[in-house]
Automatic annotation (TrEMBL):
Its EC number is 1.14.14.5. Gene3D superfamilies: Luciferase-like domain (3.20.20.30). The keyword Flavoprotein applies. Keywords: Flavoprotein, FMN, Monooxygenase, Oxidoreductase. The lineage of its organism: Bacteria, Bacillati, Actinomycetota, Actinomycetes, Mycobacteriales. The gene is msuD_3. CDD domains: Alkanesulfonate_monoxygenase. It comes from Nocardia aurantia. Pfam families: Bac_luciferase. Residues 373-395 are annotated as: Disordered. This is Methanesulfonate monooxygenase.
Length: 395
């Protein structure tokens, strides 16, 4: 996609405000420098959460995997270690009964005075799902997620006991459930399969994407909104996009750092693949798309770099934004212009990157949005920092 950084008019699709999300790490181990600990370094968690809040982040994702810390317990700790951060709890519906999840989330929401968010993961790998006894196929997993969402919302809003008999869950006389702090908790869903779009568009408060080229994200957002409209929704899901920025003082330094990083990331991934037994092409559509973009070219638009996705076999959110803080901030605004109001940025040098993003990237994005609010016009950020748009690329 060719991006014109110059027009002064703010696009009609642009989000007026943005919330920045990160991901909470539990110890100093990184993809650049893996350490042999799988445990929780409490002092590190305290420092990390404080750094997120001091840096101006609005929310943090508590991820879930069969070999990770429990996301609910970690979210509760993060909620108490912070004053403002929204803990986003990643939940796989196969790991908890929906009425229990509703109670856990409502409890977290009460403890954090209304900051809780839940991100539902239907499951993209049969191997990973089987590790905790889930043998449903992909279609059934998404069907279960849809039913899970309905039960969560009923558990938070029903004023009398209710029963349920569905394809995946059955119970009698539950409730009234323990209530959230001030109303239903936002529900996020992600994925690139047809089922993910149908459920997310029709039912989710938030739809989550990994970083993709602008033209492709635009079409995906349109698809989500079209499904929401067809479902009769008066609102539309908020759009969440995720990147792994690599920044430095100049463009050349940033790209040099990126080249060094990707070699180290690839070694870490290869060692983890051998240890954990993940083999072959990924099953989930999001990872397949990431690899397809990487095969086609390395650099898209202003700053999107796909070689990190190729180095990790499309594992998780792995596309980078590379450049100076100004270029990366301008690239983030490009996605805000398409309607993204939630932007997740997490780095490879995890704690130090949080510091740098808070000092050098977040303020630039917020300054641009403040200028737009005050004037109704774009500022100069995008026009002044074209990044890869001004060159033949760094392939």
């Amino acid at each position: 996609m060719t991006v014109d950084p110059a027009p002064a008019d703010v696009p009609a699709t642009a989000a007026a405000e943005v919330e920045f999300i990160s991901l909470t790490h539990t110890n100093p181990s990184t993809e650049l420098n893996p350490l042999p600990s799988r445990g929780i370094d409490l002092a590190f968690v305290r420092r990390y959460v404080r750094t997120l809040e001091d840096g101006g982040f609005d929310a943090t994702l508590l991820p879930y995997a069969s070999n990770s810390a429990d996301s609910f317990v970690l979210a509760s700790a993060v909620g108490q270690l912070s004053e403002r951060l929204k803990p986003i709890v990643a939940v796989r519906p196969n790991t908890v009964f929906p009425t229990v999840a509703a109670q856990q989330l409502a409890t977290l929401d009460q403890l954090t005075t209304g900051r809780a968010v839940v991100h539902l993961i239907s499951g993209g790998s049969d191997t990973e799902q089987a590790r905790q006894g889930d043998y449903l196929d992909k279609t059934e997993r998404y069907s279960r997620t849809s039913e899970f969402i309905d039960i969560l919302r009923r558990s938070w809003t029903e004023t009398a006991p209710f029963s349920h008999a569905g394809a995946h869950y059955r119970f009698d006389g539950f409730g009234p459930g323990f209530p959230p702090y001030a109303g239903p908790i936002p529900i996020s869903i992600g994925g690139q399969s047809d089922a993910a779009f149908e459920i997310g568009g029709a039912q989710a408060d938030i739809f989550s994407f990994w970083g993709e080229p602008l033209a492709d994200i635009r079409s995906q957002i349109d698809r989500v909104h079209g499904i929401a409209a067809a479902a009769g929704r008066a609102d539309r899901p908020r759009i969440w996009v995720t990147f792994r920025p690599i920044i430095d003082r100049t463009e050349d330094l940033a790209w040099s750092k990126a080249q060094e990083y990707v070699e180290r990331i690839a070694r870490t991934f290869q060692e983890a693949t051998h240890r954990l037994g993940f083999k072959g092409e990924p099953q989930n559509v999001g990872s397949q798309r990431a690899l397809d973009f990487a095969r086609r070219q390395e650099v898209y638009d202003r700053a999107l770099w796909t070689r990190t996705a190729a180095a990790t076999n499309g594992n998780g959110a792995s596309t980078a934004l590379v450049g100076t803080p100004e270029t990366v901030a301008a690239a983030i605004v490009d996605y805000i212009d398409l309607g993204a109001s939630l932007v997740s940025i997490r780095g490879y040098d995890t704690l130090n990157d949080v510091v740098d993003y808070g000092r050098y990237v977040l303020p630039l994005v917020r300054q641009e949005l403040a200028h737009r609010k005050a004037t109704g016009r774009r500022g100069s950020l995008q026009a002044d920092h074209p990044g890869a748009l001004a060159t033949a690329g760094h392939q």
